Amino acid sequence: GMPAMPPYWGLGFHLCRFGYKTLNRTRYIMEMNIKAGVPLDTQWNDIDYMKSNNDFTYDKDRFEGLPEFVRELHASGRHYVVIVDPAVSGSEAPGSYPPYDDGVSMDIFVKNITGGIVFGKVWNDKSSVFPDFSHPNATTYWMTQLARFHNEVPFDGAWIDMNEPSNFYDGHKDGCPPNQKEDQPPYVPSGEKLCAKTLCMSDRHYISSHYNVHNIYSQMEARATYKALVQIRRKRPFIISRATSPGQSKWSGHWSGDISSSWEDMKLSIPNILSFGMYGMPLMGADICGFNQNTTVELCARWHALGAFYPFSRNHNTDDGIDQDPVSLGELVVRSASANLDIRYKLIPYLYTLFYRSHVYGETVARPLFFEFPDDPNTYDIDEQFMWGSAFLFNPALYQGQTEVKAYVPAGLWYDAIHNEPMEVENGTYMTFPAALGDTMSILVRGGHIFPLGSSIVTTTDQRQKPVYFSAALDKDGTAQGELFWDDGDSLDTIENGKYNLYKFYTDWNLNIVFSLSRVVTGFTEQPIVDIVMVSGVPQAPTNVTMGGQSLYFEFRNKVLLVRNVDQRLDHDFEINWS
């Protein structure tokens, strides 16, 4: 199937770390970043919120008041995501831990070749057992555990980790049984045992041996989690998974796992995200500032500039690293995070529309340059730049001590996204752009595109209550076009049920059309209001701008026409003209 449509709030900024250790520390870090002006939609917690690292529990001493904290987040228009590992504790006292007791009674744990439950070891104190997500009862089991925990802590999304599945043993505590062909194939790439840090290949699932199930284990867990969240919340699920397999984007997004806080890993995150986009996994990101080892102020400032434009944008790191949220690293990182996230938030209506196209047509969201310029061989090996859709070209600074970026710009008319300055490129060429540390990344807008913008604001919930804006970047022929997808941002199956609006718009300077909007689909009753229309690349100043025969206030400077106070609800087609 096609990639899942994410909730609107899932495209905001997410904050996390392994090692907050207490709810008080979680709250303090979050509030300090909000106070500093860092846009923030979602707070996360890693396994340290749990009691004894056991799924579906929380430590009522260190995280006392967690349910109330989540409700406070909801009241502020924010959301909360928790980590959930597939393995549950296999060593709690009988009757004290329902995830184990229920699994035994429903017979849904992975078995060994003799039919006994496989006991591995993950984060739990003594032993871990693994749900068999291929079992007919597994989805009901998983839903029961998630629902029970949700009744205590009303989380909004699930972070499914360790789902390769990961195991601290190589198979079982005493290894894997001898003389099993699945465990001892004649050839293994790299020479490692197939059971290294996972289950024995001879272990049994309902449908087959682990040898045949291993590579789809995460997808089965993601599917069960998705179905559970649909039933529990009755809203669009938001799920991020560490392990993935082809087709899993129907149920979850992905992040790149435990990368290091290094310049090299920051650079490699770009081709990683672009590759997953081509695999059909558009909701993808990497841990901003890196996960393992300690980051630096310079690296984290650069990474926040880049990570603000990952399709999935989250700062997260390990429990033995320093605090690396923007405030903890100081004013420079706060400035970089705030400035670049401010642009991201303005672009979320455009980004959300790209995800609509991904869900319906299977298109990429973040994409390599050669997707848009297949006839330009210079784009084929570019992996330090990327695009959002067809309209935006991102040119990040990726090297220590860098003060400018040398970026390839394909042929066409382009505009600086911050200053709207045009640059006409006859043939593709490398150009140099300033890259001051702490400033916004170099972003170019491709002529010929109109894109919707949201308000500069700190949560997507607030943004959806404000007017939208439209910005047109004219091509050399004086035309541009674009679209906006709009629904309530969180309900299930709005596209499948026709409960959304789709607007098409275009500009044609030669026909004296500043902006024309047509409604293609009108199934959602709540219509946004457009307040401002901006057109870049206008050859000459108009003397009058009108809508429906009424004059509108406008400004004109440096070939940019700014029409203010449009105040038009998008409940009917309309056209703005100039003379």
TrEMBL record:
Keyword annotations: Glycosidase, Hydrolase
UniProt GO BP: carbohydrate metabolic process
Keyword Hydrolase: yes
Glycosyl hydrolase family 31 C-terminal domain ranges (all copies): 362-450
Record domain Glycoside hydrolase family 31 TIM barrel: where: 3-354
Domain of life according to the entry: Eukaryota
Any one GO molecular function term: alpha-1,4-glucosidase activity
UniProt family annotation: Belongs to the glycosyl hydrolase 31 family.
Protein name: Putative glycosyl hydralase sucrase-isomaltase
Organism of provenance: Rhipicephalus microplus (Cattle tick)
